[in-house]
Amino acid sequence: MKIVLVIIIFIFIVIIGKVFYIEVIDYDKLNEYASNLWSRNLPVKADRGIIYDRSGGILADNITTTSLVVIPNQIKDKKEVSQKLANILGISYEAMYKHVSKRTSIERVHPEGRRLSYEVADQIRNLKLDGVYLVKESKRYYPFDTYMSHTLGYVGIDNQGLSGLELMYDKYLTGKDGAIKYFSDAKGNKLNLSEVYEKPQNGMNLTLTINADIQASIERELDNAVTKYNPDMVIGLAMDPNSGEILGISSRPNFSSNNYQKYTTEEINRNLPIWATYEPGSTFKIITLAAALEENKVDLEKDTFVDRGSIRVENATLHCWKHGGHGRETFLEVVENSCNPGFVVLGQKLGKNTLFKYIKNFGFGSKTGIDLNGESTGIVFNLKNVGPVELATTAFGQGVSVTPLQQVTAVSAAINGGILYKPYIVKSINEPETNTIIKENKKTVVRKVISEKTSNQVRYALESVVSNGTGRTAYIDGYRVGGKTGTAQKVKDGHYLDNNYILSFIGFLPADNPKVVVYFAIDNPKGVQQFGGVIAGPPAKAILSDSIKALNIPKPSGGMEKEYQYYDKKYKTVADVTGMDKNEVIKKLKDFKVDFEGHGSKVTYQSPSAGARIYEGETVRVFMN
């Protein structure tokens, strides 16, 4: 009896201990297990992080839509429900019946029931069917549609990033979904218990380095170029040369990020400013110039060169764009005139080892490291394969293949004091509710390439190109602009194409203290004489002009006056004619058309105002008293 009693007491102690363990120590875990067995979740999708420009303008947003889910076990008459839903959604009865009869706790009606219109959602809601639910779903929306489409990218139907920044920063932009939790028995019947709302956690926001005004200017000029020239492609890019921040980026052809399904994979995955590679042509001469100046191989104003229209290198004859050549010229004029034979001589003075050292140091032949996917490396000759001809052609931008971004990054280093920066487009990643900065990108120095002294000389030479040389079309009166034109033949199957060029212009301002570098390239414009300065210069000038206001750049003092050609439109200063009579006005404004408004003997107001600089022959409106 005693033994039996001890055994029974021991058993009760074990049972009580186990009950205590279950009810106290293991309660939370077991309660969660139990809750999961009889709880069901209606998903509530999190919003994707918003993408802003540097001033807070929205580039990628979210709109709230509604999606259909069904709980098959709660639907009593599956045939009737299937027929009603099929009629509203415009799908077959059989397709809908498959959804409502599936052996699953919750069935998302995909794709027919995703992102429903308000009208369709209201029709389903008014049916008040058991087991049929409408849940919130977020849809990506791009307010400017095609703006920066390759750079921003696009997202799939489940809000996953598929290209561009949407893909590159997907782990930050993607939020954590929430749910409406309800309770049901084993058969799926809903229990009379309170529902639990688990709030979704939205994704992180991105703030880009993009300047909205410069971006709009680039988009406008790209569209104008497409309309005017019907080119194969057009590229526009703007950068802060003192930090590597991308201020504007786009290209044509582009696509609608809101309707990406209508385009081919090839059309939507090629971000041309960072992906396209081609021979740069004369814009590459800036690198040869910088190297020659840094190595003290040339004095721009004292050293001279006689251009006879071509130069012989081994078995090859390399031509200047001007038939018959430019004659005797200083090397500053070689730069102004974009004279190929003159740059061949500079390349020969440097030698292949030195020239290619600078080409590598300026970043050519390797990725810049920008925070975008799909960047190309470009192609540079292997040094062991460089002979006299390859050295000569490389010196003026032929035989190498570069990306637009590499060119802008390298030229920025040539004019900013000699520092090569790593370009970037995301300024910061921010927490959505408090706007706390989670991660911030800052300017990154890659290397020092040339000295401040050399950089000053490069800026001076390139300002002279715009004032006196092939870049005159980019001249902006009252501002100091530097730049270089490019006219590059295209290669196909190892041969240069006839009358098929990529025309480009790379410019910056102010020339004495650059705040922005703009690159504009037009591939194979139709029906025009193909010269970079003539075709690519004006749109680049327009973007630079808009950048003045966008960046609040003041008018500088000094600078070079434009050397006008006989065919150039000339700027003239408007005189002050207030208080004068008509005869005096006509004499004072003899260089302009004068439009008199009103009656009286004296002028009370004029437009443009005194001191304004406008083209000769433009109209000045004069208001009489």
Description:
The structure is a single chain. It is built from 21 helices and 26 strands. The N and C termini lie far apart (130 Å). It folds into four domains: 2-39; 41-208, Penicillin-binding protein 2a (Domain 2) (Alpha-Beta Complex); 231-550, 3-Layer(aba) Sandwich (Beta-lactamase); 571-624, Trypsin Inhibitor V, Chain A (2-Layer Sandwich), CATH 3.30.10.20. Helix 3 (78-89) crosses helix 4 (93-100), helix 12 packs across helix 14 and helix 14 (340-350) packs across helix 16. The protein is an alpha+beta fold. A hairpin with a 2-residue loop joins strand 19 and strand 20 (495-509). The model has no long low-confidence stretch (mean pLDDT 88). It is elongated, with a radius of gyration of 34 Å.
Total strands: the figure is: 26
How much helix, percentage-wise, in residues? 25-40%
The poorly predicted ranges are none
Question: How many DSSP helices?
Answer: 21
- Helix vs. strand class: alpha+beta
Q: Hey, roughly how much beta strand do the residues contain?
A: 15-25%
Give structural attributes:
625 residues; alpha+beta; Penicillin-binding protein 2a (Domain 2); 24% strand; single chain; 4 domains; seven-stranded mixed β-sheet; elongated; five-stranded antiparallel β-sheet; Beta-lactamase
Mind sketching the topology for me?
Layout: H1 2-25, H2 27-38, E1 39-44, E2 51-52, E3 58-70, H3 78-89, H4 93-100, E4 107-108, H5 118-127, E5 132-141, H6 149-152, H7 164-168, H8 170-173, E6 178-183, E7 196-198, E8 205-208, H9 212-229, E9 233-239, E10 246-252, H10 265-269, H11 272-275, H12 285-294, E11 304-307, E12 310-313, E13 316-319, E14 327-330, H13 331-337, H14 340-350, H15 352-361, H16 388-395, H17 404-415, E15 419-421, E16 426-430, E17 437-440, E18 445-448, H18 452-468, E19 482-492, E20 495-509, E21 516-523, H19 532-535, H20 537-550, E22 571-573, H21 582-588, E23 593-597, E24 603-607, E25 613-615, E26 619-624
Parallel strand pairs: 2-8, 23-26
Antiparallel strand pairs: 1-6, 2-3, 3-4, 3-5, 6-7, 8-16, 9-10, 9-21, 11-14, 12-13, 15-18, 16-17, 19-20, 20-21, 22-25, 24-26
